[in-house]
Amino acid sequence: MTGDNLEIAPADVDAAEFDAILDIRFGREQDPVFTSAINVDANELARDPLRFVNANDRVLVVCDIGLRSKTAVEGLRLAGVPASVSLAGGADALRRMRATSGPASLSADEVERYDRQIRLAGFGIEGQRNLAAATITVVGAGGLGCPALSYLATAGVGSIVVIDPDIVDLANLHRQPLYATDDVGTPKVKAAAARLHALNPEVVVSAVEEMVTEQNARTVIAGSDVVIDATDNFAVRYALNSACIALGGPMIYASVYGFEGQLAVFDSTVGPCYRCLFPVDPSGDAVLDCSTVGVLGAVTGIIGSLQASAAIQIAAGVDHGLYGTLTLFNARQGRFDQLSIAKRPNCQACGE
Q: Which class in CATH covers the domain with range 134-340?
């Protein structure tokens, strides 16, 4: 590293030994590529190189694409730090190299497609690999299911199961953007699967044209890493809740009503279940759906997207604080609120 070569290749960097790694990228705190790196402002490094390293140190300098780091290394060598090198191609090249090597490698196209997601601190390559190996089941392909399904597919979930017995109706289209006018009369799961394949051909989509019941719930969600409840049916929610408890997996609940929506993530192994929040099935007279009170289509988009966000984080293995809260959204006030949910010791579904 003391010769004329100012750079080291990404393939060689993990085997090399450095006394100091200087990360001069913008936003480096949110996207660490070396856990031991020192975050340094490039201008400060240029003004006073020996403030950050010693003359005898073996130094690696990292920027985004390898240009500013190469200039920084030229300055370090002039300042008397001969064993300093720049990472060729920068953090972008290192990220691509790491993602496309190893037994669970991603293709070059996958690295490019999911680049902005892979850059997320706490997500990274491992999160993307986890997501590619995951199966997420979405029950309901309507106002909540459409945005949830869209973002799951574009995020790179390996396998998506979509369950819904209904056909596309003209009245669906204002809040269900997976479908076009030509899809009216087509089974929702069939139209959804075709659209998701167009969005991301790498994702495997299984379409199940069936109503979920207490009798089949455990069977239809078996093998799922996460279940999204995108229905407007209390009986289905209770059936899914029981099945998720039996199988030991998370369920992401949401509902919309007029200008309002709500969301909660349940996992009885770590917190409350759906029946802890709603212990009693409301009577038929108390239940009003969007066909009665109406719904703002954008609200279903917001809440369905929140369901996708939660499912992606759980499946990717991202550290999160999603359990134990009910999130409330009011579109007329542009406001989110959160309420804490406690596990009920005497819960009919998950209690002692």
A: alpha beta
